[in-house]
Amino acid sequence: MRRIQFAVLIMSILLAASINAQQNDTSLCRSLYEQGQYNAATECFSKKAFLIEPQGNEAALLQVYSDLGASYVMADEPIMAKAVFGKLLLLSPTYTLDPDRFPPDIISIFQLARKEYLPESYPLRFSFAPGGIPQYKNKEKGKAFTVGAIQALALAASIAGYVNYSSKKSDLYVIAEEDVDAARLSSRMHTIGFVTFSIAYVYSIIDGLIHKPTERTDVETGHNAH
After folding, report:
1. CA atoms of 198 and 187, how far apart (whole Å)
2. Do 77 and 173 share a domain, yes or no?
């Protein structure tokens, strides 16, 4: 009984290994690419990527993404190529294509994807700029708009509250009795606006510094034969 169980276990392991090897084998896809059948190659590599993605095999996935992106370039679909290269770069930001194995037009699209999908290093002073600029520099445009809008509205409310409060004062800095309630409301608006702006500004600085990209010195080179 134990021998049967052991045999079943071994067969299961071998079968799983065989299936995994077949999923990761891209020789057919490469053959289509080399024959100039670029549309067929994109379809083949897309299927391979779909099979490999759940496995968590980063090395194999990077290989397929680079091949798929190259196939899209050669199939005259630069937008799709940039999208695939973008996925590759988000998975491995330091990845680059080997110029000895990829033609310039493919590398050019890859570099465009790098600029579009990955933030570039920028001077530290931008991390302290208001208006959501740190988030914008980090390629987080949605967050940049939200942070910038909150800061702008809060600052506007603070200034309006201060101006209204100041207008209630006489030359002797005395507030008339009938204007006391309005002055208090304006004072509160000024305080709340100032505090809100300060919180949003500090958040913007901290968030910007946390996500600020660094200069890339160590670059991983893709090893793909084409």
Report:
1. 16
2. no
